[in-house]
Amino acid sequence: MSALAASSATPSAAQALSLFRSLLRAAREFPDYNIREYTKLRTTDAFRHNATLSDPNSISTAFAHGKSQLAVVKRQAVVYSLYAPPLRNVMELQQTPF
Amino acid sequence: MSIVFVFAFRPNFSILVTPNAHLQKDFGLDILDLEEIVTTLEEEFGFEIPNNEANKTNSIKLVVDHIVSHPQANIALD
Fold first, then answer.
1. Which of residues 35-54 of A touch B (CB under 8 A)?
2. Alpha-carbon distance B29 to B7, whole Å?
3. Using CA atoms, how far apart are residues B19 and B66, in angstroms rounded to an integer?
4. Count of domains in chain A?
5. pLDDT truncated to tens, each residue of chain A (98 aa)?
6. Which of A55, A57, B22, B69 has its CB surrounded by the most CB atoms within 10 Å?
7. What is the extent of the structural domain holding B35?
8. Which residues of A touch B35 (CB under 8 A)?
């Protein structure tokens, strides 16, 4: 356990920021408005919540979770695009407000 | 042509947006806010902003210049 922990370095702030951006970019691929907006908000909330972490173990755990979630987002964006509904959400319509 | 930025990141936001305004010093944006802005700009104008360029762009003027000068930017001339 200690050998495994010693071999993996703690993710740096730059890596966390890169993961943050990757998640936001991946979230954009969702065709569904609700899933897309939820994924963005969830990503922002999680990173703000974990911004104060200083324990290397906590940082590594949170980063690993973020990495796995990024893989989930990428996979689900593809799946959702296969079954995208023909009608667009009213929030996405480019209509002039009445 | 003008680009209007709507800053919804902070409540009760009333700082005047000027070309020389600094994103971090004048608007109090932290590093996560800046990342959100970069990805929002990418989505709005349809091109990717590399990390090193995003890090150097820290004022309204630099942001606007970067977008306008990019050949792939999707800017509608109204």
1. 44, 47-48, 51
2. 10
3. 13
4. 1
5. 444 444 457 888 888 988 997 999 899 789 888 888 899 888 988 998 888 888 898 899 899 999 899 999 998 999 988 888 887 687 777 656 65
6. B22
7. 17-69
8. 17, 20-21, 24
User: Taking Cα atoms as reference points, which of A11, A15, A65 lies closest to residue A42?
Assistant: A65
Domain annotation covers residue A77: yes
Q: Which residues of A touch B42 (CB under 8 A)?
A: 25
**Is residue A92 assigned to a domain?**
no
| Record: contact A21-B39, CB cut-off 8 A | yes
Range of the domain at A42: 30-84
CATH number of residue B21's parent domain = 1.10.1200.10
Taking alpha carbons only, the member of B20, B53, B23, A22 closest to residue B7 is: B23
Give the residue with greater pLDDT, A77 vs B43. Answer: A77
Average pLDDT, chain B: 68
Using the beta-carbon criterion (under 8 Å), do A47 and B31 form an inter-chain contact? no
Average pLDDT of span B16-44: 74
Distance CA(A29)–CA(A48), nearest Å, equals 22
Interface contact A15, partner B, CB < 8 A: no
**Total domains in the fold of chain B:** 1
pLDDT value at B59 more than 60: yes
> Do B35 and A20 count as a contact with CB atoms less than 8 A apart?
yes
